[in-house]
Write a structure and sequence with these properties.
This protein is 35% helix and 15% strand. It has 379 residues and is an alpha/beta fold.
């Protein structure tokens, strides 16, 4: 089954009760049992819910995995992965990652005896230099948030397997439409399903997908024991979002390319971050592991002027100044004061997250309207 067909039919079946084409929203916390322990596969909705199961099957299908898990948020999904670790374990992570991930790593799990190494991963072969006998996990985000660095998943996976270390890839920006990390050797794929998976800015959710059954069992246990699951209504909405993922992503990519090229030729813009440019340091890796280059674009105004950046995002009319990304509508954000504010200024500036950086989530509106909005906002 090809990807575009998988988004609609992958892992799905018609509801056995009445043949409903879309899975019903099973808005229930518990299920009747004929005898203690005698049930029809569902006993309590923290553990399983038919609507969530349908979503998890779909997630596994589009990522070419065997098991999907849906959580109450992307950070809840990351939290479940970190609960695979024990005090004394070490994690090698990219140094330019989402601020919420950085906060979870440094403000929560560091206090539980987990050591984190934040490194540049643009040259994946150097990752091995930071792995020792205590390393249990490599955490990769590609493209990275918000400076769009590309990390070679296949090379990193080879290192992880050689060192007997788990590799988890945050695939939020790319989505399985553009890249499928499990096929490249990753052990775990993570999504903030709030973003492109849902696609309509109307839910908060996280997801994990794996191929290994034993790893799936460990994560299912953590999910049930910790309880950070999503509800049936959000599961239904996310499943609906998956069914249009392929056509939405095609337009996101088309508009993202147009916006990136417009900004690159603008006299007031100093730098544009988009992996589709041949000048991007890892453009060839992006071409080899992605089907297109996505709808996320970041840029810096000339002179790295904070006030100028704030003025631009406040002047936008079609791009909405807001947190998050991946919805059908275009959004603009100021990472230094919004998504990455939890990262100390000195640390974030090392990775390019300067005060004048603006991140765009390019939506599926008409390309000409988006360009016109940028033109009037930048001046």
């Amino acid at each position: 089954m090809k990807f575009n067909t998988k988004t609609i039919h992958g892992g799905q079946q018609h509801d056995p009760a009445y043949g409903s084409v879309m899975p019903p929203i099973y808005q229930t916390s518990t299920y009747a049992q004929s005898t203690p322990g005698g049930h029809k596969g569902y006993e309590y909705s923290r553990t399983h819910n038919p609507t969530r199961s349908a979503l998890e099957n779909a997630l596994a299908s589009i990522e070419n995995g065997s098991h999907g898990l849906a959580f109450g948020s992307g950070l809840a999904a990351i939290d479940a992965v970190l609960k695979l670790l024990e005090p004394g374990d070490e994690v090698v992570s990219t140094n330019d990652l989402y601020g919420g991930s950085y906060r979870l790593f440094t403000s929560i799990y560091k206090n539980f005896g987990i050591k984190f190494h934040f490194i540049g991963m643009e040259n994946a072969e150097k990752i091995e230099d930071y792995i020792n006998e205590n390393t249990k996990l490599i955490w990769v985000e590609t493209p990275t948030n918000p400076v769009m660095n590309i990390i070679d998943i296949k090379t990193t996976a080879n290192i992880a397997k050689r060192k007997n270390v788990l590799l988890a890839v945050d695939n939020t920006f790319a989505t399985p439409y553009l890249q499928q990390p499990l096929d490249l050797g990753a052990d775990i794929v993570m999504h903030s399903a709030t973003k492109y998976i849902g696609g309509h800015s109307d839910l908060v959710m996280g997801a994990l997908v794996v191929k290994d059954q034993d790893l799936a069992k460990r994560l299912y246990f953590i999910q049930n024991a910790s309880g950070a699951v999503c509800g049936p209504q959000d599961s239904f909405l996310a499943l609906r979002g998956i069914k249009t993922l392929h056509i939405r992503m095609q337009r996101h990519c088309e508009n993202g390319k147009a916006v990136a090229e417009y900004l690159a030729n603008h006299p007031k813009i100093e730098k544009v971050y988009w992996p589709g440019f041949e000048s991007h340091p890892n453009h060839n890796i992006a071409k080899s592991q992605m089907n297109d280059f996505g709808g996320m674009v970041s840029f810096v105004t000339k002179g790295n002027n904070y006030n100028e950046a704030i003025k631009i995002v406040e002047n936008m009319k079609i791009f909405t100044l807001a947190e998050s990304l991946g919805g059908v509508e275009s959004l603009a954000g100021h990472p230094a004061s919004m998504t990455h504010a939890s990262i100390p200024k000195e640390e974030r500036e090392k990775t390019g997250v300067v005060d004048a950086l603006i991140r765009l989530s390019v939506g599926i509106e008409d390309e000409a309207d988006l360009i016109a909005d940028l033109k009037q906002a930048i001046g």
